[in-house]
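ok posting inputs for the zinc ion job
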Amino acid sequence: MTKKQISKQIIEIAKRLYNRNMLAACDGNISYRLSDDEILITPSGRAKAFIDPKEISSISLKGATVAGNPSSERLMHLAIYNKCPKAKVIVHAHPPMAVAWSVAKPALTELPTKCLTELILCVGKIPIVPMAIPGTEDMGSLLNPYLPDNRVMILARHGAVSWGEDLDEAINGMERIEHAATILYHASHLGELSEISDADFEKLLALRADLGPRSI
Ligand SMILES: [Zn+2]
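and the output
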């Protein structure tokens, strides 16, 4: 794919996120590892679903601006690219239900994994990364302990991030986070959250291991 084609696809992903209420105003950012030392990334301070492909910025793996006005949250993207050689695409959005869990239940370290078979099968688990001030180095350093093993993560009191080996995987991961958070929200309002048995959990973990590390 050419840079222009990739830029158009990045904007398509932003439209999907916007249409699913995961991006408000100038929220979120999407990046794509073009080569060993060039990353395309959405611009700072713009509504990503409505930009022109020419506005997609470019940075080096060390964070230097190559072209445009790259996102202020690029340190998070760089932490993932540096620690995850397989990461090709990163999607960061602000999915409301996922963030709400981190606000209402600050002691939670992951979404309740043992409640949903699909959560285990499709992503393994969804950890909640401690809060960082947006735009600071903490956004990268707090992620480090979760990498490269986790491809989907909630960022406490802020948003979520999903990385993948291609565009589909990265967007699927983000949709999976918000969908699981929404089901768990409804379940918690209907009654107590119930868990599957340890034996079934082990079976699902084995199936997940067979499927491999990709978000599905
Ligand atoms: Zn953000």
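notes: The domain at 3-211 is CATH 3.40.225.10 (L-fuculose-1-phosphate Aldolase). The chain has one domain: 3-211.
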